[in-house]
Amino acid sequence: MTHARAALLVRTLIITAAALACAMRPVVAQNPTADLEAKLPALKGLERARALAKLVDAHKLDEPERALRYGSEANKLFSITPDPVANISALNEMGWASMTLGRYDSASFYADSARRFAERAGDKAGQARALSNLGSLAQRMGDPTNAVQLFNQALVLQRAAGNDRELANSLNNLGFVYSTDLADYARSLSLHLESLSIRQRLGDKAAIALSLNNIGIVYDRLHQYDQALSYFNRAFALRRELGAKARMAATLNNIGDTYFDAKDYANALVYQRRALEIRAALDDRSAIALSHRNIGLIYIAMNQLDAARRELQTALAISDQLPDKGLAAQIHLGMSQVERASGVPAKAEEQARAALALATAMPSRELIRQSTEELASDQEAQGRLASALEEFKRAKVVSDSIFTANTARRIAALEQMYSDAQRGRELDSLRREQAELELRASRRAIQRDGAAAIALLVAIVAFGMYRRRVERGRLAEALSVTDALTGVWNRRYVQQMMHMDLAATLRRHRVSASRGDSPDDADLIFLMLDVDHFKAVNDQFGHAAGDLVLTQLAAALRKACRDSDAVVRWGGEEFLIIGRFANRQQGARTAERLRQAVERHTSVLPDGRAVRVTCSIGFAAYPFDLAALDALGWEAVVQIADEAAYTAKREGRNGWVGFLRNSGVGPKLTEAPASHDEMTLLVDQGRIRQESSWTVRAADAQLSFPTPERAQPAV
């Protein structure tokens, strides 16, 4: 190697290291929304109204009720000190918040009010935003044709105004309708790629994630699953970074759909349950119904028909309260599959016809195709082959109109166009940088700086690759919330999700306190379950058999719990069950139901041997003290439940113990008792009440508690 080449290599490495060091400097996290809310008490008049309008936008997805409260106050202030643009913005985002809550009448009122107000005020951007909201509402209510018209009207206004951000939004909305309702995947992909290109130029991470997510949906519909997962994973990484809970749930749902389509049902169930957990905490009724429907379809594929029927009935009960025709049609299609698989094809046909009527009323080509195919399958199962053949022919006509022969070629061409455009932008950028270098230096300096530019480019590319590896690692860590052995949740899941459960619980208690009533479903109940004499199982049958017993036992526990509950492997042979939307007075019944589920369960080893075990359970409720809701954190309540399980062991095993606070007796507790003796003292003082399976009435102790309805309780 020559001296000059060696020097160039050293220079390149130095520049690369410098670039990496600069790029990896820690960034101080900022939360503009929290800062604005902190300043809010000091603001008055128009300044406060404008701040409230911004907060409506910030909270419309994850805390829509809060957004509507802010918007209501902002509107009152704007009526005193007008600011038409800010007022129109508040009305538009209140419409979106109402849509999130499934209140479509209110959403229509706010969006239409914003549209008319914007027309009078000459606010083209506000008018376009209102039209876009009305388009989204039309799509949700099963009118995709009207949705396309409204989105196109918004698009014309945004192109004329040169508003790139909103232009990208309308392109995205149109793309979503074309993929979801009209099944024109080539046009959908074209719109989404144009939207993504604009958003990448603007650097809007949330919007980029939305485009990536929607492109993933298109590829899933085209059965290109690896490509779909690639886009979804990139979208999820961005949404997790931004803390966008509702959007995270949507992407998890989509990942679950893709695994389902690829027939990987275990992964599909994991991701759909994660989506449901988030949606339940956010009280997004339409999304909750969709998650139950999706879980029902997975159970059908796994031939667990009773579980599937429960999930779909829950979804249907929720969707009946919403004007979402598309969602209702999808649920009816699922019910048709369940009834046919259960050997009742006549009932299956009723469900398919209900779905077809809804799909035709929308109209949605994709849903019409699915409904017609389902109807044909139901008729075939009844032996009505002639009718089934006619329905299959109708389905084929619709299917041919969706998947034309040149669809794949059109999509490949679009991808190439997008890649070429990306490369062209990168070359233009490099040319501009080179021109600047030429203006600053002589020929020798140009050569040196050119080498530096090349080295820096190499460094940037290397760093980009490094960042992608880091992001993949972070994503893998984020998704590793299930226990590798049993498939239930693990501790990381609890750490990530608990803040949402706590917020929902405390909100319910505070709302009830303001009304002066007592909530029936506001508590979290933590139940610590420890398998009795598990060491003996390992000693007698071997550790592999012990692992199998734990795996089968975890499945039995999930079956004994509601879908709103979480089963967590806490460590070893310990499981933590988190009862959400519960009442602390039902803690004993829940513990007894779980105890019986374990006692009655038989694990079967590969060689046919049967293993039966019992368990000891301890439980405690959060908030621990109803007179001081924030006095004791959830970790301390779990510690109390653990102490209760230890007490159950001491009492003789195969039983349960619960420790509940007697509110108003003695000073509040600010930390969990440090020992068994300290807990015993608190019980003796009457500050804590102990319940146990050994002290309740014998008749109650022997009651058989049925498995609960798997319906998601109302949030």
Summarize the helices and strands and which ones pair or pack.
Blueprint lengths: L2 H21 L8 H8 L5 H15 L4 H17 L3 H17 L3 H18 L2 H17 L3 H18 L2 H17 L4 H18 L2 H17 L3 H18 L2 H17 L3 H18 L2 H17 L3 H15 L5 H17 L3 H17 L3 H17 L3 H18 L4 H34 L2 H37 L11 H25 L7 E9 L2 H8 L1 H18 L5 E6 L2 E9 L4 H14 L2 E2 L5 E2 L3 E8 L11 H18 L3 E7 L14 H9 L3 E5 L5 H4 L14
Parallel strand pairs: 6-7
Antiparallel strand pairs: 1-3, 1-6, 2-3, 4-5, 7-8
Helix pairs in contact: 1-22, 3-4, 3-5, 4-5, 5-6, 5-7, 6-7, 7-8, 7-9, 8-9, 9-10, 9-11, 10-11, 10-21, 11-12, 11-13, 12-13, 13-14, 13-15, 14-15, 14-23, 15-16, 15-17, 16-17, 17-18, 17-19, 18-19, 19-20, 21-22, 24-25, 25-26
Protein architecture, described:
This protein is of the alpha+beta class and 715 residues long. Among the domains are: 225-280, no CATH class; 284-403, Serine Threonine Protein Phosphatase 5, Tetratricopeptide repeat, CATH 1.25.40; 491-701, 2-Layer Sandwich (Alpha-Beta Plaits), CATH 3.30.70.270. 70% of the residues lie in helices and 7% in strands. The protein contains 29 helices and eight strands. The strands form two sheets. A six-stranded mixed β-sheet has the order 2-3-1-6-7-8, with helices on both faces. The chain has a two-stranded antiparallel sheet with strand order 4-5. A hairpin with a 2-residue loop joins strand 2 and strand 3 (574-582). The chain is globular, with a radius of gyration of 29 Å. The N and C termini lie far apart (70 Å). Mean pLDDT is 80; it is low at 1-29, 402-424, 470-479 and 697-715.
